[in-house]
Amino acid sequence: MQVQQLVEYAEGLYHDTTFSVCKDWKEKHGRAAIGYLPIYVPRELIDAAGMLPVGLLGGRGLVEIIRGDAFYQSYICQIPRSTVELALMGRYDFIDGFLFPSTCDVIRNLSGVWKILFPDKYSHYLDVPQNFEKEIGGRFYERELRHILRDLETIAKKKVSDDDLRQSIASYNDNRHAISDLFALRNAEPWRALATESYLMLYAGCLLPVREHTELIRRYIAAVKQADRPMRDNARVIVTGAFCEQPPLGLVRTLELAGCYIVWDDMSIGRRWLQADVSLEGDPIESLSDAFLRHSITTAVKYEPQLDRTVPLRRLVEKNRAEGVVFAAPSFCDPALLEQPMLTQALDRAGIPWTAFKYAENLGQFQVIREQAGTFADSIKLWSEA
Amino acid sequence: MSQDQSKDQSMVKQKEMIANHFAKLSTAKESGRKVVYTFVPGNLTELLHSFDLLAVYPEINALQSGMRRKSGAYVTEAEKFGHSEDVCAYVKSDIGMLKAGNIGPTGERLPPPDLLLLSYTGCFTFMKWFELLKREYDCPVVMLHVPYQGDGTLTPDMRKYVVDQIRRDLIPVLEKISGKSYDEDKVKEHLRRSAQAEDDLVWVLESAKHKPSPIDGYFGGVYYIGPIFTAFRGTQDAIDYYRMLRQEVTERIASGQGPITPDGPMGPEKYRLVVEGPPNWTHFHEFWKMFYDEGAVVVASSYTKVGGTYDLGFRHDPDHPLESLAEYCGGCYTNLNLPSRIDLLCKYMTEYQADGLLINSVKSCNSFSAGQLMMMREVERRTGKPTGFVETDLVDPRYFSAANIKNRLESYLQMIEQKRRGALPDKRLADRGDGVLHLEVLP
């Protein structure tokens, strides 16, 4: 299949706010679907129970917010209101249960709103540990995972064996390899795998079963390697801060059109949360827990017991040979915005150019950002030491 | 008559306690006392006392800066350093204060911390706050992660997780910093004192069930919770303070007096309100005056439970010291899920015979604010009582619009009045299963 066909397919999935591909899967397989909010949930548990994990990333600017605004004050970000809107529109009716991870106060409190609005639907707040010692945070997390697994078994009406879990872990390990390959390609040849397309490929993972998603990514990688695409004199940048409420697709495209090659970003970061394989040996729940403790990606919502928070960003810049950093955070996003000053100060000290702007998922005008990003890219190209 | 003679003795006592504490902090370096910065919700004050450590609470500094009208400049200063206008003003006020020399509320310089104890209870911003402070100070950080009551309960697994962190991670660091060994008997003694003071605090808060209420459970309440939520829990001073306060309130009940306000005893009680959300600190007295000028008394509030839900029966338990501390941390108001918060507010509406619920929604605090509109609808649906909504901020004075707030408050009180006269039928929001909440008139 050609690149264009693959991208069109993924873009179709992206724009379908009715989740038809998920509903088709349910109808075909006669099994349940579990929705989850950003950033990270261990989807292996859902898959192992024979259910479809469905990533819920809010309205992404594709739905008009009418009733959702009545639930949230003006100074709260967009994602909870569009999530409520979609639910009240009935778009989530096909979903049999919801997981709300411990991302921030807003997502956390949304779990309570859900319990009130939809008392007949299963919903659970997933508290991931902020203590990364195996005997403390690890054991707590294992108990939490076993608790969720029992709940999922009840919904699925299926007992999940250790082998079921291992098979799912293997599938997600494979999925992470494919995504890692995609990012490696973006790093090596960003003109081949564009960030907009890469994002669409990742978003497809919100809806498709994991093995199908892995196959899609591999086909995309194979196709773009064969494609004849021009290399432009763009600036290599990292985009950070967009880990929860997603920027509209047009914004990502705008950055690229403005002369940026986005060689790394934290959009849809839950899919890349674990930076190494989950072990297939031993107790699979313990393996998932260990992987969380030892191989979680550094992001604003996760406590870093040892590291200076600015170190991982500087490492990312180095590893990806980035020439600048774009801080793109949703308005009113506490985790992203609170840490931004220390990160920008660290970049200043290291002589790494950066620029910053805020967005909302339903942002419709990109001209100002295009000018800002264009100026930023030009300044890198014209005046950077490189 | 001196200013102090016109005040209740408990107020004078509290003022002395605070002054002594900040005096100890200002001379901590000279006296060799070690200092721990930590947060109010889920604080482990008794444990810190047992190691002879002094506590600093950055939220308290921020709110004090707000009350002293200094926070506006601090917030602006922090924003000059790149902090977004979108984020918590407590953090920005604290950062601004730090940049301005870290002068505390008594005008004395606060010592740098020897430890940042990140009691991570009910607020994600705490984590980012101490990450920012860690860049300013060369000291260790200990994270105490308190799991959220997502399903409305604190499970044994959660308690064990917190106890494990205290025992294995925190206590060794406290021993190292203080140079003292963990002494459980000392902790038990502090916890015993805590429980004694907590009994009197609850008695005082629940005195608002009387008509007229002898206290204001929000604007007055924030003074009453001061000692028990901060550095004084587990001390004889706290026991004495709450005993004194209880005696004063007993006398007010006996004489049929209402709350004492900054302008003296409040006039006749006309409205009894429950308030959800933190107060505004930059215009605290102006805000309060809007209420007492109208004869509105706050009989119960959620904010006075942010450092512990003692009125739900919790007491620190000397027989189970670490387990009791874990239980305390998990039970703080913002660590409760929204259904539990709604249950609590509805309980207050009934038990305190309130006329309605007013939400003060603060821009800074998503932990409180996200979901408040849902809570408001739900409380109205369940109680049939009118609810109102005003917006301010914690310590950013730019978000206090006096005319707008006064207008809203007066309209809300008029709504209560109309309802009393039967001009407004009882209504509730009903879920008919079609995804839309309908306003129904109650029979």
Element-by-element helix/strand order of chain B: HHEHEHHHEHEHHHHEEEHEHHEHHEHEE
| Main structural class of chain B | alpha/beta
Shape annotation of chain B: globular
User: What's the main sheet of chain B like?
Assistant: 4 strands, parallel
What is the total domain count of chain B?
Answer: 2
Structure description:
The complex is a heterodimer of chains A (386) and B (443). Chain A has 386 residues and is of the alpha/beta class. Chain A has a domain at 28-164: Rossmann fold. Chain A is 50% helix and 11% strand. Chain A has 14 helices and eight strands. Chain A has helices at residues 3-15, 20-29, 43-48, 79-88, 105-117, 134-156, 162-188, 195-204, 210-226, 249-257, 284-295, 310-319, 334-350, 367-383, and strands at residues 33-36, 52-55, 97-101, 122-126, 235-240, 260-265, 324-330, 354-359. In chain A, β7 (324-330), α13 (334-350) and β8 form a beta-alpha-beta unit. Chain A is globular and about 60 Å long. With 443 residues, chain B is α/β, with parallel strands linked by helices. Chain B has two domains: 4-179, Rossmann fold, CATH 3.40.50; 188-441, Rossmann fold (3-Layer(aba) Sandwich), CATH 3.40.50.11900. Chain B is globular. The chains are: A alpha/beta (386), B alpha/beta (443). The interface between A and B is large, with 62 and 53 residues.
Features:
heterodimer; A: 386 residues; alpha/beta; Rossmann fold; B: 443 residues; 2 domains; four-stranded parallel sheet; 17 helices; disordered N terminus
List strands and helices in order, with pairings.
The complex is a heterodimer of chains A (386) and B (443).
Chain A: H1 3-15, H2 20-29, E1 33-36, H3 43-48, E2 52-55, H4 79-88, E3 97-101, H5 105-117, E4 122-126, H6 134-156, H7 162-188, H8 195-204, H9 210-226, E5 235-240, H10 249-257, E6 260-265, H11 284-295, H12 310-319, E7 324-330, H13 334-350, E8 354-359, H14 367-383
Helix pairs in contact in A: 1-8, 6-11, 7-9, 10-14
Chain B: H1 9-26, H2 28-31, E1 35-38, H3 45-50, E2 54-56, H4 58-67, H5 71-80, H6 89-99, E3 115-120, H7 125-134, E4 141-145, H8 156-178, H9 184-206, H10 221-229, H11 236-254, E5 260-261, E6 264-265, E7 271-276, H12 284-292, E8 296-301, H13 321-331, H14 338-351, E9 356-362, H15 366-369, H16 372-383, E10 387-392, H17 402-420, E11 427-431, E12 437-441
Parallel strand pairs in B: 1-2, 1-3, 3-4, 7-8, 7-9, 9-10
Antiparallel strand pairs in B: 5-6, 11-12
Helix pairs in contact in B: 1-11, 4-6, 5-6, 8-13, 9-10, 9-11, 12-17, 14-16
